[in-house]
Amino acid sequence: MLRMKIALRDLVRVKRQMHALSLRNSKPSRSTPVIECRPILVNTASPDEKGCLVLADGRLVAVLVRVADTGDERDGERLSGWQMEAGFGRCAMSVPPLFDTLADAAAWMRMHLSAE
């Protein structure tokens, strides 16, 4: 009887360890991604070289460049803010968006990456 209790206790312990391991190895859910911006200099052949690598859950999803307010216009609006130079996956766009702030860029990317 004692051997049976010890064996049962060991079985429960092993089962808990396997469950914990399966939780660690499971794929993350399609919840809201964690957006991180890492500063970087981008060779744009212009004075606008302050950039940002945008990572979502550790994966590169975009490269942004800070556009100085030079008086240039696009579609009747002044160009200033953060221009998406390159987007990957769901962030790839034929007409790159311009964001007022990095927070706006992060919110836009979160929305596009969370969409089904």
Description:
The chain has helices at residues 2-25, 102-114; strands spanning 35-41, 50-56, 59-67, 73-74, 77-78, 81-87, 98-99. With 116 residues, the protein is of the alpha+beta class. It has a domain at 35-114.
Write a concise synopsis of the structure shown.
It is built from two helices and seven strands; from the N terminus they run αβββββββα.
How does the SSE layout of this entry go?
Blueprint: H1 2-25, E1 35-41, E2 50-56, E3 59-67, E4 73-74, E5 77-78, E6 81-87, E7 98-99, H2 102-114
Antiparallel strand pairs: 1-2, 2-3, 3-6, 4-5, 6-7
Tally of strands: 7
Unreliable stretches covering 5 or more consecutive residues: 19-28
- Percentage beta strand: 25-35%
Helix content: 25-40%
Helix and strand content put the structural class at alpha+beta
Task: Kindly list the characteristics that best describe this protein.
single chain, 116 residues, alpha+beta, 5-stranded antiparallel sheet, two-stranded antiparallel ribbon, 31% strand
